[in-house]
Amino acid sequence: MDRKVRVRFAPSPTGxxxxxxxxxxxxxxxxxxxxxxxxxxxxxxxxxxRFVPGAEEYIIESFKWLGIKFDEGVGIGGEYGPYRQSERxxxxxxxxxxxxxxxxxxxxxxxxxxxxxxxxEIENFQYDAHTRSQMRNSLTLPKEEVDKLISEGAQYVVRxxxxxxxxxxxxxxxxxxxxxxxxxxxxxxxxxxxxxLPTYHLANIVDDxxxxxxxxxxxxxxxxxxxxxxxxxxAFGWQDTMPQFAHLPLLLKPVGNGKLSKRDGDKxxxxxxxLEWHDPKSGEVSSGYREKGYQPEAVVNFLALLGxxxxxxxxxxxxxxxxxxxxLSKCSKNGARFDYVKGIWFNHxxxxxxxxxxxxxxxxxxxxxxxxxxxxEKEAQVVEMMKMKVIEYQDNLGNxxxxxxxxxxxxxxxxxxxxxxxxxxxxxxxxxxxxWKETTAMEMDELAGVLSAIDDFTIDNIKEMVEAWVEAxxxxxxxxxxxxxxxxxxxPDMYELxxxxxxxxxxxxxxxxxxxxx
Length: 518
Ligand code: GLU
Prior knowledge:
The chain is 42% helix and 12% strand. The chain is an alpha/beta fold. The strands form seven sheets. Strands 4-5-8-9 form a four-stranded antiparallel sheet. A three-stranded parallel sheet has the order 1-2-3.
């Protein structure tokens, strides 16, 4: 059957969007675009006890930042709205009634206390074909009593009546035929009179049907619900338009076993949320990829390859390339290890693609916070000189490591000296010790003289004059000169640095060093 591809991302607004949810949305988006289909954004907010204010707005802002666009849904509109489930109450009522009328669902009046008592009495109690006859429901109570209870306003739930002993097949694009026996399923609650709202299972199925969803692409954690969903489609008589399922592999911890959690991120120092999240209740702040200085394109590229790859060793893929190459049926069944170090590498790659001018706003912001005023031109020059450097850092486990510049914020510790003259000169610094000798002060004094004679203080002119002097004197002044201008053994090419600082500042720093290191 050829149907228009319509997929959906259907989060529950219970908090910030986990990075695994972002990957799910991305795969839906890629699949939709590749098939000229439509991508729906639905909010599944029928569990009012878990509702968190601000979560919906957070999710919308996350996708805006990442460049993942929806065609219809909350905040956009479309012919199948409303797209927020809490606004669809009346729609669900009708479908709950349809199942009740067909004898495929029933009323259950058991109180929480009665259910607890049963659980205490029967080990691993499950409300199903074996036990429902012992409970207070419309299958065991006389019809008059059921009607009376309802008309008196007694609280009830509607449960799905699952026939035992049926082989249920979930045809999954990634996992193939997943087969379970209906006897292991319980009679799931579909609707609660207390709030007049359906549960996730009913609302999800009804909406996927009404919104003409062709493929349900979601995380592996929903696979256990899939057989129930198949049975619900059949109970409604919608089996011919049932969406095709694809349950994506889990994201796994960077080290060790099990699925990726926020604690892994906290421990190893990487975000598990796209944007920073301020918990409205606890006030706790969780870090986000955006605020950490990641490029959205890098995050997209990194996530796209967690569970799928193009089958060759191409790693840098734009959104357009991903749309072309993505293949849902080639997604892995096995969990994908969340290699956050690789995420940093992707950011390095994408940052380097950007011209220096595009680094400037963020760099300028960092400099301002350090009390430094500079110009965009100067800042761009510094970026150009330093972007290929390697930084040393300590990871969260205390190991000393090196990596390429991967964030604009990596620049500051490496570039301080461009904007601030060394405050002190440390005689005990290894580099200073090694390169500042008896004769150095005199040589630096001479070099300062050479520099002061240069009128147009450009890289080329400095180079020419200094090299002529070096040749005549037969000395190697580079490291000592570096000590003067930087204070230690860091920084770019000395001619570039001197030209950047200008004649006056260069000579001033040399004089200071000569005095301090005498
Ligand atoms: N509301 C579910 C969630 O929070 C949707 C699961 C599904 O895609 O069916 O992820």
